[in-house]
Amino acid sequence: xxxxxxxxxxxxxxxxxxxxxxxxxxxxxxxxxxxxxxxxxxxxxxxxxxxxxxxxxxxxxxxxxxxxxxxxxxxxxxxxxxxxxxxxxxxxxxxxxxxxxxxxxxxxxxxxxxxxxxxxxxxxxxxxxxxxxxxxxxxxxxxxxxxxxxxxxxxxxxxxxxxxxxxxxxx
Length: 171
Hints:
It is a single chain. This protein has one helix at 16-69, and strands spanning 82-86, 89-92, 97-101, 104-108, 114-118, 121-129, 146-153, 156-163. By secondary structure, the chain is α+β, with helices and mostly antiparallel strands. The chain is rod-shaped. The model has no long low-confidence stretch (mean pLDDT 87).
């Protein structure tokens, strides 16, 4: 036996009170989650920029260390073939080198052609140290035993030391 369907006019649709309550609840949920979405987007952008700066700084530091380790030997045994040495750059007699100009760190090849190695560099300093590790050899760069490198790119600060390979095994 089938039951007859009754049309109850009071239960056909949502009441005005139920509709307003739904709107209020959805508004509260939206008002609390929307700012979190904006913060998450900003955090992602900041993290991406930090990662990019870290990658550029690490690459620039790696290339700088490689260049300094491969310093050419000077005319006198046990010396380096450095043509110019400043706190913001070094040039070798074969044309290779590295130099900070403005906020761009440039790498020079053997033909003297420069290529941008890293941009937005806040600071880049080279220290030229003697065998004792404390005496500066900037006035006589050919006698440098160790290079101290400091690089700041986008708030990422890297410090390293490089020893020229021509010095390995020499007194």
